[in-house]
Sequence to fold (262 residues):
Amino acid sequence: MPEQPRCWVCRRSEAEISAFADVETPREGEIRQQMSQVNLSRTDFIQSADVWRKGVPKEFREFDFKFVTSNADQFKSIRIANGLLGEIAVPTKLLGEIVEAKKLTVDWLENVAPVLRKGEGEVPGLGAFSHFEKADRDLLRRMVDQFEAKWRRRIGSDGSKGADPSGYKQGFEGLNLLDGLEFMIAAGMLYYDVQAQLLDMARRKEITSKPKRGIVAVPVNGYPPIPLCSVCVVVMREVYSRQLAVEPAVPQQVSAAPLVRS
Ligand SMILES: [Zn+2]
Fold:
């Protein structure tokens, strides 16, 4: 077996240099943190969903979901007469939590769903959706399609005027508080699935766009190519470009030198 090439400068082999240089990029680190944040938030969301389901008083279940959640603040001052039990204070803390969670998850998904459906447009924080692989874009579109088909509802409006050709309802249209809550919890889970998928796509894209680590033959200043590792190549280029930058000052020094010597 022939001796494996080593870098002419640092003497490291191909295997040594890839082990040394395969470090996480700042972007990879950022994505990794976002991924663990998504997992934590998903766990919180599932726990909260249970509290919300149990917390909605019977008296409120038939209220319109959109009406209640868009007027959550007003419910602070409203009390409902309830026969034997007297008045029931509306659980504003619970409503506030539901509204807040909806904003973070479903509202985001409503904005992004048209992009995922069409396969083009901007995904907040990740840039143009078209930069991802087609298979990945198709997978996200299917996730949205399947969710909407299951609920026979659009996550958000698809922007077209008139009745939806598929016969789907729009968002929370016509849902009471309890059913709306179930739709919101399901859409919230889809939000976390979409986030996790998008981040995984971004991570794979970042890894494949990293420069290859290894040893290449590089011609330096007209000499025959010498084996250099990817780390030393960068250093050599740096040195070489500095030499070029100071070149205009060199002839003077060179022509002055013989005079001193003679
Ligand atoms: Zn080297």
Q: What stands out?
A: The helical segments are 14-21, 26-55, 65-70, 92-118, 134-151, 177-208, 230-246, 250-261. Residues 81-86, 246-262 have pLDDT under 50 and may be disordered. The first strand starts at residue 79 and ends at 82.
